[in-house]
Design a protein that fits this description.
Layout (H helix, E strand, L loop, with lengths): L3 E7 L3 E8 L6 E4 L3 H14 L2 E8 L6 H19 L8 E8 L2 E8 L5 E5 L12 H15 L2 E8 L3 H19 L17
Parallel strand pairs: 3-4, 7-8
Antiparallel strand pairs: 1-2, 2-4, 5-6, 6-8
Length: about 200
Amino acid sequence: MSRQSEVSRQTKETRIDIRLNLDGQGNADLCTGIPFFDHMLTAFTVHGFFDLRVSATGDLDVDFHHTVEDTGLVLGQAIQQALSEKGGIQRFGDASVPMDESLSRVTIDLSNRPYLVYNIPENLKSRGPFDAHLAREFFQAVCVKGGFNLHINTCYGENEHHVLESIFKAFGRSLHAATRPVSQVSGVLSTKGCL
């Protein structure tokens, strides 16, 4: 069964084209116009063993918000589309990833009930235009369009780059775990019989 998707979205602010293969090898072909964002999406892709192609253009002269949020919307939609009815998969995923002084844990339930919990250290200082608060907008968009419950908890960390990288890597690993086929499951893994 092919678990791939292609999704595009165009507004007056952005154009986003994404191709996703959930059963890839960690190949990233990314061009968002935001080098740090590309770096984070690469970490997600490599550690999730996905193949991901992202082409994004947006009003970066205004700020990064529209491009980052819209990329999240399209990625969430691509994940949802690649999983189809979410049958025969693990459904839940959990991963903890350290990055130097930082440690983040990401837990996912592909439940079709979007909800984001996002806890990062309160004393985290922004060091650039792509910060931890903008990352939150990305994850909010991903879980809304992807239809999943997403808990992001950074236990501790001081360097914003390290915190964000640990989050994106853990996101990739937890999504990989949640999307793995399970031979014992026919249909969806739910006591309700549907998600």
